[in-house]
Amino acid sequence: MTQPAPIRRVPGHLGTALKLAASRVPVLPLRAGKLPFGNCRACAGNACGGRPNMKTPGPCHCPRPCHAWAAATTDTATLTGPAWASAWKQTAAVAYHPGGTGLTVVDLDHADAITWARDTLPATRTVPTTRGEHWIYQGAMQSANAVRDGVDIKSSMAYARWLSPGTGTMTALPDAVRALVVKETSPVRTAHRAVSVSAPDGGGECRHRTPAYLDRGIAMAEQRITEAPSAVHATVYRTFLAVLAAHGRCGCLTGAHIGRLFAAAQAKGETVRHCNDAWTNALTRLGL
Fold first, then answer.
1. Reduced to 3 states, what is the DSSP secondary structure of residue 201?
2. Of 72, 67, 80, 14, nearest to 36 (Cα)?
3. Mean pLDDT of the chain
4. Which are the contacts of 190, defined by CB distance < 8 A and separation ≥ 6?
5. Are residues 134 and 125 in contact, defined by beta-carbon separation less than 8 angstroms?
6. How far is residue 276's CA from residue 288's CA, in Å, rounded to a whole number?
7. What is the pLDDT of residue 112?
8. In terms of Cα–Cα distance, which of 176, 182, 177 is closest to 153?
């Protein structure tokens, strides 16, 4: 009797991705810096309108999965197909879309955040990370960065690194976690001084209010922070200073814009306190 051929074991990150996909967990490869790949020529150089760091997909109409959480898939043919053939050779880590599999990850970046979680949230499955822990709950919700110092929520329309299955019994998503995300979550709420300046006199609409102009400026600032190879403190301050010099006097900046800058800085390891100090110092330098 002919024996069936054994299933070929695929090593490395692709092998991890295929195992997760077989368990119905949508996955995608990450390049160095925990950033997704752009997976089609049409989106090379951000031609589709996504943010430069590729963490947020643009309004593209690709015939294949493209970048960021939108690329996460459980389809084996896609994972092993030509769209990602070169990406797997450069992959630094595997990520997954928590919301796509009905999960929420509470990303705790440091010891104080872990202490807060232990005192505040019900126990659930935990996964150790480089600097802290992921607490994983059953149930999806809106994602948000910096809901507290060192705490991000990763669920719908977000991705998280796959590090291990974790330990402990997964429990239902508690209201205490849902309550952390308000309609417009932004770390600027804790800043020493928020942006509150009037539009310049000129008799017309401020040019910075054009969405494309302002969004491009914020996206470039995020990219500058994200790609800083060193001297992160100085880079964050100079970037905040440049944004305020260009947009701080016309009143076009919103909490959401500032939140994006703070989130980029915290992703590079900055604390909320450091972000607040850099923002306040830039305001003072410009006389705002």
1. coil
2. 67
3. 77
4. 149, 272, 276
5. no
6. 15
7. 94
8. 177
CA 236 to chain centre: 17
Cβ neighbour number for residue 132 with a 10 Å cutoff = 20
| Side chain identity at residue 14, one-letter code | L
Residue with tokens 């309108």: 49
**What's the pLDDT tens digit per position in 55-87?**
554 445 554 556 677 778 888 988 888 877 888
CB-based contacts of 276, cutoff 8 Å, min separation 6: 190, 191, 192
Beta strand segments in 144-257, E? 144-148, 151-154, 160-161
Answer whether residue 187 shows pLDDT above 50. no
Q: Which two tokens stand for residue 260?
A: 């994006």
Q: What is the C-alpha separation between 280 and 269, in angstroms, rounded?
A: 19
Residue that has been written with the tokens 């600027």 in this structure = 188
Beta strands, E only, the chain:
27-31, 35-36, 93-96, 103-108, 125-128, 133-138, 144-148, 151-154, 160-161
CA separation for the pair 14, 89 (Å, rounded): 9
Q: Identify residue 38 by its one-letter amino acid code.
A: G
